[in-house]
Specification:
The protein is α+β, with helices and mostly antiparallel strands and 324 residues long. Helices cover 53% and strands 13% of the residues. Strands 2-3-1-4 form a four-stranded antiparallel beta sheet. It starts with a helix and ends with a strand.
């Protein structure tokens, strides 16, 4: 499922009063697909079928594309700025409303309704941030430029990305509900379920899966930069990959995010800038993954249609040495 379709499905679960405040991802994608055709200045990757003879003018072709990008990219950024401003303004208003609700809560009142609003606003932020990142990724592909990382760093100054108030409110409400254990910690599974277990399960269901990759010329500093960001935001590493050729390192991780905080991606963008790296990431919602598994056939590796294939066993170097 394409992200645009997925976003529309998720929007339908929000109140009608929220709908107009979402990022218009479809408009941004349509602009790129209709206006930025044959504009990429990165000829080697954008135009693999475009070959030049010596007598052909590469300068004219590149000059024409640069002229179009010079006009279209600023126009796209202005459109994106307007959409991001719309999202941020709505977030500020809703966060203020939640703060008022929290102050009005009395000690004997059930805070679950307010917590539901916090979780809904968290999801609103995560869906829109992901949409911005994906729109920028498409722009960079069509234009042959690298705009996404500096734009995300710039966007990290906005309230809907930089604010920590929502996380503080969430922690206080979770504590009041009696489910303030760390998500993912061991629990007593022999006791009968309690109402707080349901609240905790609702929070755990918010888990997101993200694939992050950073490539750069600074060796193990690339690895350290990624791991520092992940540890700061308490991500659970599910899998990883590493390749190195001399000082050039590519480090990729598959992680679970137990909170819908977008600070991780802002920190990763800043890390990529610091180490002259190229950052790529993709976010897949746990609910989307579950939908795919439920509606499509599942195949085991042994069923893959590769005749006479060779299987390999990977080893990992850890503090106990090499293990399969």
């Amino acid at each position: 499922m394409k992200y645009g379709s997925y976003l529309e499905l998720q929007k339908a679960e929000f109140p009608a009063s929220w709908q107009a405040h979402f990022l218009d991802y479809t408009m941004l994608k349509t602009y790129l697909k209709t206006r930025m055709v044959d504009t990429s200045v990165h000829l080697s990757t954008a135009c693999p079928s475009l070959t030049f003879k010596w007598e052909d003018s590469v300068a004219d072709t590149l000059g024409s594309r640069l002229e179009r990008v010079r006009t279209l990219t600023p126009e796209f950024i202005r459109m994106l700025d307007a959409q991001v401003t719309k999202v941020n303004t709505f977030f500020e208003r809703m966060q203020s409303d939640i703060q008022v609700l929290c102050k009005a809560l009395r000690a004997e009142q059930e805070p679950q309704s307010v917590l539901n609003e916090v979780l809904r606003l968290e999801r609103f932020v995560f869906l829109n941030f992901t949409g911005v990142a994906k729109a920028l990724k498409k722009h960079d592909k069509w234009a042959g430029l690298f705009v996404r990382e500096p734009y995300l760093v710039r966007m990290s100054e906005l309230e809907f990305v930089a604010s920590t108030e929502l996380q503080q409110i969430k922690a206080e409400l979770v504590a009041r509900l009696g489910c303030d254990e760390v998500v993912g910690s061991s629990r007593d599974t022999t006791r009968a379920p309690t109402p707080s277990d349901k609240h905790r399960a609702d929070i755990e269901h918010a888990t997101q899966t993200a694939m992050v990759s950073l490539r750069g010329p600074h060796g193990t500093d690339i690895i350290g930069g990624v791991l520092t960001c992940l540890s700061k935001h308490k991500c659970q590493i599910v899998d990883f990959s590493l390749s190195r050729l001399h000082h050039d390192v590519t480090f990729g991780v598959l992680v679970h995010l137990h909170e819908r905080s977008v600070d991780l991606f802002s920190d990763l963008a800043q890390t990529a800038q610091r180490w002259d790296g190229t950052l790529s990431f993709d976010v897949q919602d746990a609910q989307l993954k579950a939908t795919k598994l439920a509606t499509s056939a599942q195949y085991a590796l042994s069923e893959a249609p590769y005749a006479q294939r060779i299987k390999y066993v990977a080893t990992v170097l850890n503090e106990r040495g090499l293990s399969p």
